[in-house]
């Protein structure tokens, strides 16, 4: 149905409505009976992936297809996210860090315009079994080392790829953070070993691995804490010496292969550092309060949420952000190094990205640099001597990039352990540009990348000045999901060509007018999130009303 053009009074009213409701419209409440678990926030697929035909154990997953793929779907990269812990659920990454919808303090869902599925498919796996909503049929099946972890992950990934023929040839990038600094190399290494024995059509199409603030070579990383804290002014020399003594005790236990005791000793080092500094959290020394990822457990213990996600557990089941049972199973594994697995990946020419939020004191820049330079890899000398380039996003310094051949290491400014939470747009820019190998087509480490907000501003201005086709505007700002593609019709009339469409949802939030933009020109005074929301809301109006005012 063709919508009638609004008069100036109506346009002014719509302008006021937009700014008064913009924040309200971005949060989707579970308590609102009209939304329940909003369909916009539902995964493309979710459920369970068996790890063996002889076991009832399975890995829970949620998958979100790319919002706006830049390539045919059959070629669109697929990112797999693994949380750390050990035993922490990847639903933390999903709903607190980098998924398409994030939890607010009021347990509502808010669109994440810096999600990692903007142009890639994104798969979250609750790993290992027994973690999050994943099922361990017996305690004995829960992995106690990285080989078992990798075996289960390989089974889950191959099972997932078979769910849809379109997944078969998509390049897979395995990503994760923290203790996933062990999971990610382990599954990457395992895939290389398995692929060498499989026929072409049976192989996993692994294209690269990415590790954020990862624990990979624990001993080398652990012995950096005293010097790191001392030289940034957090402890004095007496305290440093006390920390060094505690670190030496942990090293000696590793040398004696007393793995469980060595893990306990590392924990004592970190607890000592925490007490000495008095910081709210070692995960980000600038924070006044710890990360609020406990909200994930509150959210996922709501029955309605579980049903929406396809969770199949007893009503008495209590979701835990991190499983103490899984943590205990892998306790003795924690101090064992998987550096040799990273070396193997690099020797095979596999692309490897390491990235660290600069403000993490537990597994941050210093800890990662310490083990990287000890790698036995033919390119390590060239890497160490490679130029460290300044990386900018939207004209501002976002961090630093150092690379050689297939190995890239990134330091991201202004971020801590949970980097996508701290620097959402920059972490999105980082992963997208790395996967797409932007350094091969642009100047600098990844070219002159603009943030999502900056891109939205530029696109919006072009849409308003009619420099580009408005259907293209809809696509650029990911608004196609709001309309039915099959409903587009071309309608020729005496006054010229017009476009009309039938719209499925006639809620008031879809009738914001483009007059808002015309009456509010100073975009630079608006925050990134507001710019993106403004661009989407106004372009949504354009797509629905199908004519220019």
From TrEMBL:
<keyword id="KW-0378">Hydrolase</keyword>
<dbReference type="InterPro" id="IPR018202">
    <property type="entry name" value="Ser_caboxypep_ser_AS"/>
</dbReference>
<dbReference type="InterPro" id="IPR001563">
    <property type="entry name" value="Peptidase_S10"/>
</dbReference>
<dbReference type="GO" id="GO:0004185">
    <property type="term" value="F:serine-type carboxypeptidase activity"/>
</dbReference>
<keyword id="KW-0645">Protease</keyword>
<keyword id="KW-0121">Carboxypeptidase</keyword>
<dbReference type="GO" id="GO:0005576">
    <property type="term" value="C:extracellular region"/>
</dbReference>
<keyword id="KW-0732">Signal</keyword>
<dbReference type="InterPro" id="IPR029058">
    <property type="entry name" value="AB_hydrolase_fold"/>
</dbReference>
<protein>
    <recommendedName>
        <fullName>Carboxypeptidase</fullName>
        <ecNumber>3.4.16.-</ecNumber>
    </recommendedName>
</protein>
<feature type="signal peptide">
    <location>
        <begin position="1"/>
        <end position="29"/>
    </location>
</feature>
<dbReference type="Pfam" id="PF00450">
    <property type="entry name" value="Peptidase_S10"/>
</dbReference>
<dbReference type="GO" id="GO:0006508">
    <property type="term" value="P:proteolysis"/>
</dbReference>
<comment type="similarity">
    <text>Belongs to the peptidase S10 family.</text>
</comment>
<keyword id="KW-0964">Secreted</keyword>
